[in-house]
Amino acid sequence: MIVGRDEMGEFAEQMATQAVEWQKSEHNSGAIVFGLKGDLGSGKTTFTQRFCGYFDIKEEVTSPTFVIQKAYHVGQPVDLGAGKIKDFGGISKIYHIDAYRLEIPQELEVLGFKRILEDKDAIIVIEWPEKVADLLPSDTKYIDFTFIDENTRAVEYNWANA
Ligand SMILES: Nc1ncnc2c1ncn2[C@@H]1O[C@H](COP(=O)(O)OP(=O)(O)OP(=O)(O)O)[C@@H](O)[C@H]1O
Ligand SMILES: [Mg+2]
After folding, report:
1. How does pLDDT run across 66-97, given as a tens digit for each residue?
2. Residue pLDDT, tens place only, 117-156
3. Alpha-carbon torsion 87, 88, 92, 95, what sign?
4. Is residue 162 part of a domain?
5. Residue 150 lies in a domain
6. Residue 126 and residue 65: Cα distance in Å, rounded?
7. How many of the other CB atoms lie within 10 Å of CB of 39?
8. Ligand 1 and 42: CB distance under 6 A
9. Cα(69) to centroid of ligand 2, in Å?
C-alpha cells in the first residue's frame, strides 16, 4: 500500500486497533510484537509515533536510537459519549525499541527483553528486528516500510487481520 504522511498515520491507527482486538481475543501468550523493517528514513519511527498516539500516550514519542528502548504508559479508557468507550483491551504499556545500534542481540537481554516479552499487557514495537531475529516470537507481526519519494512510503505486511 502506498501512503502519504496522513495515510501513514491512519495505517498506524488501524494497526493499533488491530492490536487491541488481538488483546481482547486473549490468545496471546505474551506481549504483542510488531517488527518494523525498512531502510533509514523509511517511516518506522513516524509510524510508531502515530501508533502510540492512538493509545493516548502523554509523553512525546521520540526515536530510541541511542537509548535502544523506551517504555510508555497507555492512557485510561476514554468515554466518547453516547455509551461508547474507547478502551485499550487491557494493554497498559508500549515498548519502543530500536535495534539498529546493537552489536550483538544479547545486548537487548540486558535491558530485560525476555521479561517484557512475557508481559501479556504490553505491545513491543521494534525497529530493525532483523538485528535480533532469534529473540523474537514466531508470531511477530512484521511490516515492511519502503521509501518511494520525499512524501510517500510503501507499507506491506503478509499476516491476516483478525
Ligand atoms: N508518507 C510518509 N510516511 C512516513 N514518514 C514520512 C512520509 N513522508 C515523509 N516522511 C518523513 O520521513 C521521515 C521518516 O523518518 P523516520 O524517523 O520515521 O524513519 P525510520 O524508518 O524510523 O528511520 P531509522 O531507521 O533511521 O530509525 C520523517 O522525517 C517523516 O516526516
Ligand atoms: Mg526510527
Report:
1. 889 999 999 888 889 999 988 999 999 999 99
2. 999 999 999 999 999 999 999 999 999 999 999 999 999 9
3. negative
4. no
5. yes
6. 11
7. 10
8. yes
9. 12
Domain with residue 143: its CATH number is 3.40.50.300
Using DSSP, state whether 57 is helix, strand or coil.
coil
The grid coordinates listed for 74 are 497507555
**What is the span of the domain harbouring residue 110?**
2-157
Considering the domain boundaries, does residue 69 fall inside one? yes
Atom of ligand 1 nearest to the CA of 41: 19
CA of 46 to the centre of ligand 1 (A): 5
Question: For ligand 1, what atom is nearest to the CA of residue 98?
Answer: 27
Single-letter amino acid code for the residue at 76: Q
CB of 46 shorter than 6 A to ligand 1: yes
Question: Total structural domains in the chain?
Answer: 1
Residue 115 to residue 124: CA distance in whole angstroms = 12
Q: Buried b vs exposed e over 99-112: b needs ≥16 C-beta within 10 Å?
A: bbebeeeeebeeee
- In whole angstroms, what is the distance from residue 159 CA to residue 162 CA? 9
